[in-house]
Amino acid sequence: MDSNQSAPIKKVAISTGGGDAPGLNAVIRAAALSAIARGWELYGIRDGFHGLLLPEEYPDGGLIHLTRERVSGITHLGGTILGTTNRNNPMRYPIIGPDGKIEEVDRTDELVRAFRLHHIDALITVGGDGSLAIASVLSRKGLRLISVPKTIDNDLDKTDVTFGFDTAVGFATEALDRLHSTAASHGRVMVVEVMGRYAGWIALHSGVAGSADVILIPEKPYDINKVVEKIRERDTRGNKFTIVVVAEGAAPLGGAISVVEKEAGKAERLGGVGEKVAAEIHEISGKETRVVVLGHLLRGGSPTALDRLTALRFGAAAVRGLEQGEGGVMVALEAQNVKYVPIEEAMGKMKMVPMDSDTVTTAIDLGISFG
Hints:
The protein has helices at about 5, 25-35, 50-55, 110-115, 130-140, 165-185, 200-210, 225-235, 275-285, 305-325, 345, 360-365; strands at about 10-15, 40-45, 65, 95, 100-105, 120-125, 145-150, 190-195, 215, 240-245, 260, 270, 290-295, 330-335, 335-340.
């Protein structure tokens, strides 16, 4: 380890970036209590890194001292008490240029200087793939840090699971349970669009658990005719309703994913595939079809016990890792054990659903169609 990684620690900062996920507050509490137990101070950065890049916008200067009292009773709360954002990436920060057009500039050097100015010895950054990329750059520029993986999509590599995923799957499954009764009563096709971006973990797990009839995921381009074939097969057997779960990143054979929004300094936003699938089903089959988009409902609410425990373990492990001299690494879960993996190994590769996995095989055995 280099001298930077072994230097004494007195003051640590923590940031939460990207989309929110149930369990973020549990990470913050675990990190705060673990730091306090070591005689360190922990400060929370407002809204990702905005608190340091735009301190003038905050009455408290963009930093919150996370005392024992400040983090009391937050484990069960959804969201993040620090705030978060998926806009204004410091590596590609959008500004208005002289010609009035939006330009992207690199503000990471400025960010590192802000850490030095506040005498922050180390950083715990909590986020997904975008946050990992930022952390990698900050680490290479000399900032001592440890990342905590966060995404309801469960698509980060090098960790078995990310917190927020179990809560999202649980809510989606409950929604499917509720939709079964109304779909059966009216003999309708219900198309349920769920989050997950470019991976189908939420769609797959909730679809199997919620007894869906069709699951469409990004890992397997779908043929709408095969979807309609499944619907007609159910009609023939006397099952006049069908539940179709669609991941927001699913795409038809030879087609593209549905993008709602794409702008400078912000991750592209997916959506609309549920409406497309429903319209095509109705056009081909004539069946009455309805669409439910769960969207941000999957991000909200109180985290499950499993997500709380994972988040608490990750937060404590981040502080423990800093004490042990770790840096430039991500906390990960492997076979129920916490470990540290280099950020460079964790980023850049998305964890996709293996089509030969046991869960997919189980779905096929149950008669679920993947289009």
